[in-house]
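Usage example:
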Amino acid sequence: MPLPLIDLLWRDHPDAPTGGRRGPRARVTTGSVLDAALRLADADGLAGVTVRHLAADLGVSTMSVYTHVNSRDDLLVLMVDAAHLRMERIPHGRAGWRSRVRRVAEANLALIQQHPWLLDVVDDRSALGPGTIAKYDHELEALEALGLEDTDRDAALTFVLDFVRASARALRPQPRAGEMAEHWPEWGPRLATYLGDDHPLARRVGAAAGEALGGPGSPSHAWDFGLTRVLDGLDALSSGGRP
Amino acid sequence: MPLPLIDLLWRDHPDAPTGGRRGPRARVTTGSVLDAALRLADADGLAGVTVRHLAADLGVSTMSVYTHVNSRDDLLVLMVDAAHLRMERIPHGRAGWRSRVRRVAEANLALIQQHPWLLDVVDDRSALGPGTIAKYDHELEALEALGLEDTDRDAALTFVLDFVRASARALRPQPRAGEMAEHWPEWGPRLATYLGDDHPLARRVGAAAGEALGGPGSPSHAWDFGLTRVLDGLDALSSGGRP
DNA sequence: GAGTACGCCGTACAACGTACACTGTTATAG
DNA sequence: CTATAACAGTGTACGTTGTACGGCGTACTC
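Running the assembly step on the lines above writes:
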Protein backbone atom coordinates (compact mmCIF):
# COMPACT_ATOMS: atom_id res chain seq x y z
CA MET A 1 0.00 0.00 0.00
CA PRO A 2 1.33 3.46 -0.87
CA LEU A 3 2.11 6.14 1.65
CA PRO A 4 -0.74 8.30 2.99
CA LEU A 5 -1.77 11.26 0.89
CA ILE A 6 0.02 13.82 3.01
CA ASP A 7 3.35 12.11 2.37
CA LEU A 8 2.66 11.68 -1.32
CA LEU A 9 1.94 15.39 -1.58
CA TRP A 10 5.32 16.13 0.01
CA ARG A 11 7.14 13.25 -1.68
CA ASP A 12 9.97 15.55 -2.82
CA HIS A 13 10.63 16.95 0.62
CA PRO A 14 13.86 15.76 2.32
CA ASP A 15 11.93 14.56 5.37
CA ALA A 16 9.45 12.51 3.37
CA PRO A 17 9.47 8.79 4.23
CA THR A 18 10.93 6.72 1.44
CA GLY A 19 9.73 3.26 2.42
CA GLY A 20 12.00 0.22 2.56
CA ARG A 21 14.44 -0.57 -0.16
CA ARG A 22 13.60 -4.23 -0.66
CA GLY A 23 11.86 -5.83 -3.54
CA PRO A 24 12.18 -5.09 -7.25
CA ARG A 25 12.93 -1.55 -8.30
CA ALA A 26 9.80 0.41 -9.14
CA ARG A 27 9.37 0.91 -12.88
CA VAL A 28 7.20 3.94 -12.28
CA THR A 29 6.98 6.39 -9.41
CA THR A 30 4.24 8.56 -7.99
CA GLY A 31 5.83 11.43 -9.88
CA SER A 32 5.78 9.67 -13.22
CA VAL A 33 2.19 8.58 -12.67
CA LEU A 34 1.33 12.22 -12.12
CA ASP A 35 3.19 13.32 -15.22
CA ALA A 36 1.21 10.88 -17.30
CA ALA A 37 -2.03 11.85 -15.59
CA LEU A 38 -1.43 15.54 -16.30
CA ARG A 39 -0.72 14.81 -19.94
CA LEU A 40 -3.86 12.74 -20.20
CA ALA A 41 -6.00 15.35 -18.45
CA ASP A 42 -4.69 18.20 -20.59
CA ALA A 43 -5.41 16.20 -23.72
CA ASP A 44 -8.70 14.47 -22.94
CA GLY A 45 -10.07 16.16 -19.86
CA LEU A 46 -10.62 14.60 -16.47
CA ALA A 47 -12.91 11.97 -17.90
CA GLY A 48 -9.96 10.71 -19.93
CA VAL A 49 -7.98 10.08 -16.77
CA THR A 50 -9.08 6.54 -16.05
CA VAL A 51 -6.90 4.18 -14.11
CA ARG A 52 -6.76 1.85 -17.10
CA HIS A 53 -5.71 4.53 -19.56
CA LEU A 54 -3.12 5.78 -17.14
CA ALA A 55 -1.68 2.32 -16.69
CA ALA A 56 -1.59 1.75 -20.44
CA ASP A 57 0.25 5.02 -20.96
CA LEU A 58 2.77 4.01 -18.33
CA GLY A 59 3.22 0.54 -19.74
CA VAL A 60 2.16 -1.25 -16.58
CA SER A 61 -0.93 -3.16 -15.63
CA THR A 62 -4.03 -1.42 -14.34
CA MET A 63 -3.61 -2.43 -10.76
CA SER A 64 0.00 -1.34 -10.62
CA VAL A 65 -1.14 2.25 -10.54
CA TYR A 66 -2.44 1.58 -7.04
CA THR A 67 1.07 0.84 -5.91
CA HIS A 68 1.89 4.53 -6.28
CA VAL A 69 -1.41 6.24 -5.60
CA ASN A 70 -4.07 5.26 -3.07
CA SER A 71 -7.14 5.94 -5.16
CA ARG A 72 -8.31 7.93 -8.13
CA ASP A 73 -9.59 10.64 -5.79
CA ASP A 74 -6.18 10.98 -4.24
CA LEU A 75 -4.66 11.09 -7.70
CA LEU A 76 -6.78 14.12 -8.55
CA VAL A 77 -5.62 15.91 -5.42
CA LEU A 78 -2.01 15.17 -6.31
CA MET A 79 -2.61 16.44 -9.84
CA VAL A 80 -4.02 19.73 -8.60
CA ASP A 81 -1.09 20.28 -6.29
CA ALA A 82 1.36 19.39 -9.05
CA ALA A 83 -0.25 21.95 -11.34
CA HIS A 84 -0.05 24.57 -8.59
CA LEU A 85 3.57 23.73 -7.97
CA ARG A 86 4.51 24.20 -11.60
CA MET A 87 2.62 27.48 -11.89
CA GLU A 88 4.90 30.41 -12.55
CA ARG A 89 5.05 32.79 -9.63
CA ILE A 90 5.80 36.27 -10.90
CA PRO A 91 7.37 38.53 -8.27
CA HIS A 92 4.98 41.29 -7.28
CA GLY A 93 7.62 43.98 -7.60
CA ARG A 94 6.68 47.50 -6.70
CA ALA A 95 3.27 47.52 -8.36
CA GLY A 96 0.23 48.78 -6.48
CA TRP A 97 -2.28 46.32 -5.13
CA ARG A 98 -4.63 46.81 -8.06
CA SER A 99 -2.03 45.67 -10.56
CA ARG A 100 -0.97 42.89 -8.25
CA VAL A 101 -4.44 41.52 -7.88
CA ARG A 102 -5.09 41.89 -11.59
CA ARG A 103 -1.97 39.86 -12.31
CA VAL A 104 -2.98 37.21 -9.79
CA ALA A 105 -6.35 36.92 -11.51
CA GLU A 106 -4.79 36.74 -14.96
CA ALA A 107 -2.27 34.15 -13.85
CA ASN A 108 -5.04 31.99 -12.43
CA LEU A 109 -7.08 32.34 -15.58
CA ALA A 110 -4.07 31.28 -17.61
CA LEU A 111 -3.51 28.32 -15.30
CA ILE A 112 -7.07 27.11 -15.73
CA GLN A 113 -6.98 27.60 -19.47
CA GLN A 114 -3.83 25.54 -19.59
CA HIS A 115 -5.40 22.86 -17.39
CA PRO A 116 -9.17 23.14 -17.81
CA TRP A 117 -9.70 19.98 -15.78
CA LEU A 118 -8.80 22.00 -12.67
CA LEU A 119 -12.39 23.22 -12.78
CA ASP A 120 -13.63 19.67 -12.43
CA VAL A 121 -11.75 18.77 -9.27
CA VAL A 122 -13.78 19.64 -6.21
CA ASP A 123 -11.59 17.99 -3.60
CA ASP A 124 -10.03 20.57 -1.28
CA ARG A 125 -7.39 18.32 0.21
CA SER A 126 -4.78 19.79 -2.10
CA ALA A 127 -4.71 22.71 0.34
CA LEU A 128 -2.26 20.54 2.31
CA GLY A 129 0.22 20.23 -0.53
CA PRO A 130 3.42 22.17 -1.16
CA GLY A 131 2.25 23.63 -4.46
CA THR A 132 -1.07 24.87 -3.20
CA ILE A 133 0.44 26.31 -0.04
CA ALA A 134 3.17 28.11 -1.98
CA LYS A 135 0.56 29.50 -4.33
CA TYR A 136 -1.57 30.63 -1.41
CA ASP A 137 1.37 32.34 0.22
CA HIS A 138 2.37 34.12 -2.95
CA GLU A 139 -1.12 35.33 -3.68
CA LEU A 140 -1.67 36.54 -0.13
CA GLU A 141 1.32 38.79 -0.61
CA ALA A 142 -0.47 40.55 -3.44
CA LEU A 143 -3.01 41.82 -0.93
CA GLU A 144 -0.48 43.30 1.43
CA ALA A 145 -1.12 46.98 0.75
CA LEU A 146 -4.81 46.61 1.47
CA GLY A 147 -4.10 46.49 5.17
CA LEU A 148 -6.60 43.77 6.00
CA GLU A 149 -6.67 41.60 9.07
CA ASP A 150 -5.99 37.95 8.48
CA THR A 151 -9.50 36.61 8.12
CA ASP A 152 -10.39 39.37 5.69
CA ARG A 153 -7.20 38.81 3.77
CA ASP A 154 -8.11 35.19 3.23
CA ALA A 155 -11.68 36.14 2.34
CA ALA A 156 -10.44 38.70 -0.19
CA LEU A 157 -8.24 36.16 -1.92
CA THR A 158 -11.05 33.64 -2.00
CA PHE A 159 -13.25 36.35 -3.49
CA VAL A 160 -10.79 36.98 -6.31
CA LEU A 161 -10.08 33.34 -7.06
CA ASP A 162 -13.74 32.37 -7.02
CA PHE A 163 -14.39 35.04 -9.61
CA VAL A 164 -11.61 33.68 -11.78
CA ARG A 165 -12.90 30.14 -11.51
CA ALA A 166 -16.42 31.14 -12.48
CA SER A 167 -15.19 33.24 -15.39
CA ALA A 168 -12.92 30.50 -16.61
CA ARG A 169 -15.85 28.12 -16.58
CA ALA A 170 -17.87 30.54 -18.69
CA LEU A 171 -14.98 31.03 -21.10
CA ARG A 172 -14.44 27.32 -21.48
CA PRO A 173 -15.93 25.95 -24.67
CA GLN A 174 -19.00 24.08 -23.47
CA PRO A 175 -19.09 20.44 -24.52
CA ARG A 176 -22.78 20.92 -25.27
CA ALA A 177 -22.20 23.91 -27.56
CA GLY A 178 -21.99 21.78 -30.66
CA GLU A 179 -25.13 19.91 -29.81
CA MET A 180 -26.94 23.16 -29.08
CA ALA A 181 -25.94 24.63 -32.43
CA GLU A 182 -27.02 21.44 -34.16
CA HIS A 183 -30.50 21.52 -32.68
CA TRP A 184 -30.90 25.28 -32.81
CA PRO A 185 -32.69 25.49 -36.16
CA GLU A 186 -35.33 23.25 -34.68
CA TRP A 187 -35.35 24.59 -31.13
CA GLY A 188 -35.07 28.32 -31.78
CA PRO A 189 -38.47 28.81 -33.41
CA ARG A 190 -40.06 26.46 -30.93
CA LEU A 191 -38.67 28.51 -28.04
CA ALA A 192 -39.96 31.68 -29.69
CA THR A 193 -43.43 30.14 -29.83
CA TYR A 194 -43.34 29.16 -26.18
CA LEU A 195 -42.07 32.55 -25.07
CA GLY A 196 -44.54 34.56 -27.11
CA ASP A 197 -44.50 38.07 -25.73
CA ASP A 198 -43.49 37.04 -22.23
CA HIS A 199 -40.34 38.21 -20.51
CA PRO A 200 -39.38 40.98 -22.94
CA LEU A 201 -36.54 42.08 -20.66
CA ALA A 202 -35.00 38.62 -20.52
CA ARG A 203 -35.35 38.23 -24.27
CA ARG A 204 -33.72 41.58 -25.02
CA VAL A 205 -30.84 41.26 -22.55
CA GLY A 206 -30.32 37.61 -23.33
CA ALA A 207 -30.10 38.37 -27.03
CA ALA A 208 -27.60 41.18 -26.42
CA ALA A 209 -25.47 38.95 -24.19
CA GLY A 210 -25.62 36.13 -26.71
CA GLU A 211 -24.54 38.38 -29.54
CA ALA A 212 -21.69 39.89 -27.55
CA LEU A 213 -20.50 36.39 -26.75
CA GLY A 214 -20.03 35.43 -30.37
CA GLY A 215 -19.44 38.92 -31.68
CA PRO A 216 -16.25 40.86 -32.43
CA GLY A 217 -14.20 42.91 -30.00
CA SER A 218 -12.91 41.59 -26.73
CA PRO A 219 -13.12 37.83 -26.35
CA SER A 220 -15.05 38.19 -23.16
CA HIS A 221 -16.79 41.27 -21.99
CA ALA A 222 -17.77 39.52 -18.80
CA TRP A 223 -14.15 39.02 -17.78
CA ASP A 224 -13.22 42.69 -18.06
CA PHE A 225 -16.45 43.75 -16.47
CA GLY A 226 -16.16 41.33 -13.59
CA LEU A 227 -12.51 41.93 -12.88
CA THR A 228 -13.08 45.68 -12.64
CA ARG A 229 -15.99 44.98 -10.32
CA VAL A 230 -13.75 42.82 -8.15
CA LEU A 231 -11.08 45.47 -7.94
CA ASP A 232 -13.55 48.26 -7.23
CA GLY A 233 -15.15 46.12 -4.57
CA LEU A 234 -11.82 45.67 -2.85
CA ASP A 235 -11.04 49.32 -3.35
CA ALA A 236 -14.00 50.27 -1.22
CA LEU A 237 -12.21 48.58 1.67
CA SER A 238 -9.24 50.87 1.69
CA SER A 239 -11.05 54.06 0.79
CA GLY A 240 -13.16 53.72 3.92
CA GLY A 241 -16.53 52.61 2.62
CA ARG A 242 -18.58 54.09 -0.15
CA PRO A 243 -18.77 57.81 -0.60
CA MET B 1 -38.79 7.94 -27.93
CA PRO B 2 -39.70 10.96 -25.80
CA LEU B 3 -40.08 14.48 -27.12
CA PRO B 4 -36.95 16.59 -27.62
CA LEU B 5 -35.61 18.40 -24.59
CA ILE B 6 -37.01 21.79 -25.56
CA ASP B 7 -40.54 20.39 -25.53
CA LEU B 8 -40.00 18.54 -22.30
CA LEU B 9 -38.83 21.76 -20.68
CA TRP B 10 -42.04 23.46 -21.80
CA ARG B 11 -44.24 20.42 -21.25
CA ASP B 12 -46.79 22.46 -19.25
CA HIS B 13 -47.18 25.13 -21.93
CA PRO B 14 -50.49 25.07 -23.86
CA ASP B 15 -48.66 24.85 -27.20
CA ALA B 16 -46.50 21.91 -26.16
CA PRO B 17 -46.99 18.83 -28.33
CA THR B 18 -48.74 16.08 -26.48
CA GLY B 19 -47.95 13.13 -28.72
CA GLY B 20 -50.57 10.70 -29.97
CA ARG B 21 -53.17 9.25 -27.71
CA ARG B 22 -52.80 5.60 -28.62
CA GLY B 23 -51.34 2.89 -26.54
CA PRO B 24 -51.70 2.21 -22.83
CA ARG B 25 -52.01 5.14 -20.47
CA ALA B 26 -48.69 6.22 -19.04
CA ARG B 27 -48.30 5.19 -15.42
CA VAL B 28 -45.76 7.92 -14.86
CA THR B 29 -45.14 11.22 -16.62
CA THR B 30 -42.11 13.40 -17.21
CA GLY B 31 -43.37 15.52 -14.36
CA SER B 32 -43.62 12.67 -11.91
CA VAL B 33 -40.19 11.40 -12.92
CA LEU B 34 -38.87 14.86 -12.10
CA ASP B 35 -40.64 14.95 -8.76
CA ALA B 36 -39.03 11.68 -7.79
CA ALA B 37 -35.65 12.80 -9.09
CA LEU B 38 -35.78 16.01 -7.07
CA ARG B 39 -36.69 14.06 -3.93
CA LEU B 40 -33.82 11.67 -4.54
CA ALA B 41 -31.34 14.45 -5.25
CA ASP B 42 -32.32 16.46 -2.18
CA ALA B 43 -31.92 13.36 -0.03
CA ASP B 44 -28.87 11.64 -1.48
CA GLY B 45 -27.22 14.16 -3.77
CA LEU B 46 -26.82 13.92 -7.49
CA ALA B 47 -24.90 10.67 -7.20
CA GLY B 48 -28.02 9.13 -5.70
CA VAL B 49 -30.01 9.98 -8.80
CA THR B 50 -29.35 6.85 -10.82
CA VAL B 51 -31.76 5.67 -13.43
CA ARG B 52 -32.23 2.44 -11.53
CA HIS B 53 -33.01 4.11 -8.21
CA LEU B 54 -35.36 6.50 -9.92
CA ALA B 55 -37.21 3.66 -11.60
CA ALA B 56 -37.45 1.75 -8.33
CA ASP B 57 -38.89 4.80 -6.58
CA LEU B 58 -41.45 5.16 -9.34
CA GLY B 59 -42.37 1.50 -9.28
CA VAL B 60 -41.47 0.88 -12.91
CA SER B 61 -38.63 -0.91 -14.59
CA THR B 62 -35.31 0.77 -15.19
CA MET B 63 -35.74 1.26 -18.90
CA SER B 64 -39.20 2.76 -18.52
CA VAL B 65 -37.61 5.96 -17.33
CA TYR B 66 -36.34 6.47 -20.85
CA THR B 67 -39.91 6.64 -22.07
CA HIS B 68 -40.27 10.00 -20.36
CA VAL B 69 -36.75 11.40 -20.45
CA ASN B 70 -34.17 11.11 -23.23
CA SER B 71 -31.10 10.56 -21.10
CA ARG B 72 -29.76 11.16 -17.65
CA ASP B 73 -28.09 14.35 -18.85
CA ASP B 74 -31.39 15.67 -20.08
CA LEU B 75 -32.96 14.69 -16.78
CA LEU B 76 -30.51 16.89 -14.91
CA VAL B 77 -31.36 19.85 -17.13
CA LEU B 78 -35.04 19.31 -16.48
CA MET B 79 -34.36 19.07 -12.75
CA VAL B 80 -32.53 22.39 -12.72
CA ASP B 81 -35.31 24.12 -14.58
CA ALA B 82 -37.91 22.59 -12.29
CA ALA B 83 -36.03 23.89 -9.26
CA HIS B 84 -35.85 27.34 -10.83
CA LEU B 85 -39.53 27.27 -11.62
CA ARG B 86 -40.50 26.46 -8.06
CA MET B 87 -38.22 29.13 -6.61
CA GLU B 88 -40.11 31.85 -4.85
CA ARG B 89 -39.91 35.16 -6.68
CA ILE B 90 -40.23 37.99 -4.19
CA PRO B 91 -41.44 41.25 -5.75
CA HIS B 92 -38.70 43.86 -5.69
CA GLY B 93 -40.98 46.54 -4.36
CA ARG B 94 -39.58 49.99 -3.89
CA ALA B 95 -36.25 48.96 -2.43
CA GLY B 96 -33.02 50.45 -3.76
CA TRP B 97 -30.81 48.36 -6.02
CA ARG B 98 -28.50 47.43 -3.18
CA SER B 99 -31.25 45.77 -1.19
CA ARG B 100 -32.62 44.22 -4.34
CA VAL B 101 -29.32 42.65 -5.30
CA ARG B 102 -28.74 41.53 -1.75
CA ARG B 103 -32.10 39.79 -1.74
CA VAL B 104 -31.37 38.16 -5.09
CA ALA B 105 -28.13 36.83 -3.69
CA GLU B 106 -29.75 35.58 -0.53
CA ALA B 107 -32.56 33.93 -2.44
CA ASN B 108 -30.04 32.11 -4.64
CA LEU B 109 -28.06 31.01 -1.63
CA ALA B 110 -31.22 29.66 -0.08
CA LEU B 111 -32.10 27.88 -3.30
CA ILE B 112 -28.74 26.14 -3.44
CA GLN B 113 -28.84 25.23 0.22
CA GLN B 114 -32.23 23.69 -0.36
CA HIS B 115 -30.96 21.83 -3.44
CA PRO B 116 -27.20 21.45 -3.05
CA TRP B 117 -27.01 19.25 -6.12
CA LEU B 118 -27.59 22.36 -8.22
CA LEU B 119 -23.88 22.99 -7.77
CA ASP B 120 -23.08 19.70 -9.45
CA VAL B 121 -25.01 20.28 -12.65
CA VAL B 122 -22.80 21.96 -15.22
CA ASP B 123 -25.11 21.68 -18.21
CA ASP B 124 -26.28 25.11 -19.36
CA ARG B 125 -29.16 23.94 -21.52
CA SER B 126 -31.61 24.76 -18.75
CA ALA B 127 -31.24 28.36 -19.94
CA LEU B 128 -33.91 27.42 -22.50
CA GLY B 129 -36.47 26.38 -19.92
CA PRO B 130 -39.40 28.34 -18.52
CA GLY B 131 -38.15 28.30 -14.95
CA THR B 132 -34.67 29.49 -15.75
CA ILE B 133 -35.91 32.19 -18.10
CA ALA B 134 -38.44 33.47 -15.57
CA LYS B 135 -35.72 33.53 -12.94
CA TYR B 136 -33.41 35.41 -15.28
CA ASP B 137 -36.07 37.96 -16.07
CA HIS B 138 -36.91 38.53 -12.46
CA GLU B 139 -33.31 38.96 -11.42
CA LEU B 140 -32.52 41.31 -14.25
CA GLU B 141 -35.22 43.57 -12.90
CA ALA B 142 -33.30 43.91 -9.67
CA LEU B 143 -30.56 45.70 -11.59
CA GLU B 144 -32.84 48.27 -13.15
CA ALA B 145 -31.75 51.30 -11.18
CA LEU B 146 -28.11 50.77 -12.09
CA GLY B 147 -28.74 52.15 -15.55
CA LEU B 148 -26.58 49.62 -17.39
CA GLU B 149 -26.71 48.78 -21.04
CA ASP B 150 -27.86 45.28 -21.84
CA THR B 151 -24.55 43.47 -22.08
CA ASP B 152 -23.39 44.99 -18.81
CA ARG B 153 -26.66 44.16 -17.19
CA ASP B 154 -26.22 40.51 -18.06
CA ALA B 155 -22.60 40.60 -16.96
CA ALA B 156 -23.56 42.18 -13.64
CA LEU B 157 -26.11 39.47 -12.92
CA THR B 158 -23.64 36.77 -13.85
CA PHE B 159 -21.15 38.42 -11.52
CA VAL B 160 -23.57 38.27 -8.61
CA LEU B 161 -24.76 34.73 -9.25
CA ASP B 162 -21.25 33.39 -9.74
CA PHE B 163 -20.33 34.80 -6.37
CA VAL B 164 -23.31 33.09 -4.79
CA ARG B 165 -22.47 29.76 -6.39
CA ALA B 166 -18.87 29.88 -5.22
CA SER B 167 -19.89 30.89 -1.70
CA ALA B 168 -22.52 28.21 -1.53
CA ARG B 169 -19.91 25.66 -2.52
CA ALA B 170 -17.66 26.85 0.30
CA LEU B 171 -20.54 26.76 2.80
CA ARG B 172 -21.56 23.28 1.78
CA PRO B 173 -20.34 20.63 4.19
CA GLN B 174 -17.49 19.02 2.30
CA PRO B 175 -17.88 15.27 1.89
CA ARG B 176 -14.19 14.96 2.70
CA ALA B 177 -14.45 16.93 5.94
CA GLY B 178 -15.01 13.84 8.02
CA GLU B 179 -12.10 12.04 6.49
CA MET B 180 -9.89 15.07 6.97
CA ALA B 181 -10.79 15.31 10.66
CA GLU B 182 -10.17 11.60 11.06
CA HIS B 183 -6.67 11.77 9.64
CA TRP B 184 -5.78 15.11 11.14
CA PRO B 185 -4.07 13.84 14.31
CA GLU B 186 -1.71 11.99 12.02
CA TRP B 187 -1.41 14.54 9.23
CA GLY B 188 -1.24 17.76 11.22
CA PRO B 189 2.15 17.17 12.84
CA ARG B 190 3.50 15.74 9.63
CA LEU B 191 2.45 18.87 7.76
CA ALA B 192 4.09 21.01 10.42
CA THR B 193 7.34 19.11 9.89
CA TYR B 194 7.21 19.57 6.15
CA LEU B 195 6.42 23.26 6.41
CA GLY B 196 9.06 24.04 9.00
CA ASP B 197 9.52 27.79 9.02
CA ASP B 198 8.47 28.27 5.41
CA HIS B 199 5.53 30.39 4.33
CA PRO B 200 4.87 32.13 7.64
CA LEU B 201 2.27 34.36 6.00
CA ALA B 202 0.29 31.43 4.61
CA ARG B 203 0.48 29.63 7.95
CA ARG B 204 -0.72 32.64 9.92
CA VAL B 205 -3.54 33.61 7.57
CA GLY B 206 -4.55 30.03 6.95
CA ALA B 207 -4.77 29.39 10.68
CA ALA B 208 -6.87 32.51 11.19
CA ALA B 209 -9.21 31.57 8.37
CA GLY B 210 -9.48 28.01 9.64
CA GLU B 211 -10.36 29.17 13.13
CA ALA B 212 -12.94 31.65 11.90
CA LEU B 213 -14.54 28.88 9.90
CA GLY B 214 -15.21 26.69 12.90
CA GLY B 215 -15.35 29.46 15.45
CA PRO B 216 -18.29 31.37 16.95
CA GLY B 217 -19.97 34.43 15.51
CA SER B 218 -21.34 34.59 12.01
CA PRO B 219 -21.62 31.25 10.25
CA SER B 220 -19.59 32.55 7.39
CA HIS B 221 -17.46 35.60 7.40
CA ALA B 222 -16.63 35.06 3.74
CA TRP B 223 -20.27 35.45 2.71
CA ASP B 224 -20.73 38.84 4.37
CA PHE B 225 -17.35 40.00 3.21
CA GLY B 226 -17.86 38.88 -0.37
CA LEU B 227 -21.40 40.16 -0.71
CA THR B 228 -20.35 43.61 0.44
CA ARG B 229 -17.49 43.48 -2.05
CA VAL B 230 -19.94 42.58 -4.81
CA LEU B 231 -22.26 45.43 -3.93
CA ASP B 232 -19.44 47.94 -3.62
CA GLY B 233 -18.05 46.79 -6.93
CA LEU B 234 -21.38 47.41 -8.61
CA ASP B 235 -21.71 50.68 -6.76
CA ALA B 236 -18.59 51.99 -8.46
CA LEU B 237 -20.50 51.72 -11.74
CA SER B 238 -23.17 54.21 -10.82
CA SER B 239 -20.97 56.56 -8.84
CA GLY B 240 -18.85 57.11 -11.92
CA GLY B 241 -15.68 55.22 -11.23
CA ARG B 242 -13.52 55.27 -8.14
CA PRO B 243 -12.89 58.51 -6.33
C1' DG C 1 20.96 -19.34 2.48
C1' DA C 2 16.50 -18.08 4.75
C1' DG C 3 13.16 -14.68 5.48
C1' DT C 4 10.73 -10.69 4.35
C1' DA C 5 9.18 -6.57 2.37
C1' DC C 6 7.84 -4.96 -1.80
C1' DG C 7 6.48 -4.15 -7.05
C1' DC C 8 3.56 -6.00 -10.14
C1' DC C 9 -0.28 -8.56 -12.20
C1' DG C 10 -4.89 -11.32 -13.45
C1' DT C 11 -9.19 -12.02 -12.10
C1' DA C 12 -13.43 -10.64 -10.37
C1' DC C 13 -17.25 -7.77 -8.63
C1' DA C 14 -20.63 -4.27 -8.21
C1' DA C 15 -22.49 -0.28 -10.24
C1' DC C 16 -23.30 2.73 -13.94
C1' DG C 17 -25.88 4.51 -18.52
C1' DT C 18 -28.29 2.79 -22.19
C1' DA C 19 -29.00 0.13 -27.00
C1' DC C 20 -32.05 -3.31 -28.64
C1' DA C 21 -35.63 -6.47 -29.35
C1' DC C 22 -39.80 -7.66 -27.51
C1' DT C 23 -44.75 -7.85 -25.34
C1' DG C 24 -48.98 -6.07 -24.56
C1' DT C 25 -52.41 -2.19 -24.85
C1' DT C 26 -55.20 1.18 -26.94
C1' DA C 27 -57.07 4.54 -30.37
C1' DT C 28 -57.73 4.95 -34.99
C1' DA C 29 -58.42 3.60 -40.19
C1' DG C 30 -60.57 0.64 -43.42
C1' DC D 1 -65.71 -5.23 -36.52
C1' DT D 2 -61.32 -5.93 -37.58
C1' DA D 3 -56.65 -4.71 -38.86
C1' DT D 4 -53.14 -1.55 -38.01
C1' DA D 5 -50.23 1.61 -36.21
C1' DA D 6 -48.61 4.09 -32.27
C1' DC D 7 -47.39 3.83 -27.84
C1' DA D 8 -45.88 2.29 -22.61
C1' DG D 9 -43.33 -0.77 -20.48
C1' DT D 10 -39.86 -4.84 -19.77
C1' DG D 11 -35.69 -8.07 -19.72
C1' DT D 12 -31.38 -8.87 -21.32
C1' DA D 13 -26.98 -7.56 -22.52
C1' DC D 14 -22.81 -4.63 -23.49
C1' DG D 15 -19.17 -1.69 -22.48
C1' DT D 16 -17.10 1.06 -18.98
C1' DT D 17 -15.78 2.49 -14.44
C1' DG D 18 -13.04 2.03 -9.68
C1' DT D 19 -10.90 -1.21 -6.94
C1' DA D 20 -10.64 -5.55 -3.47
C1' DC D 21 -8.10 -9.72 -3.24
C1' DG D 22 -4.69 -13.17 -3.71
C1' DG D 23 -0.67 -14.80 -5.97
C1' DC D 24 4.08 -14.41 -8.01
C1' DG D 25 8.66 -13.16 -8.38
C1' DT D 26 12.49 -10.00 -6.99
C1' DA D 27 15.90 -7.90 -4.21
C1' DC D 28 17.49 -6.57 0.12
C1' DT D 29 18.45 -7.92 5.28
C1' DC D 30 19.73 -10.98 8.69
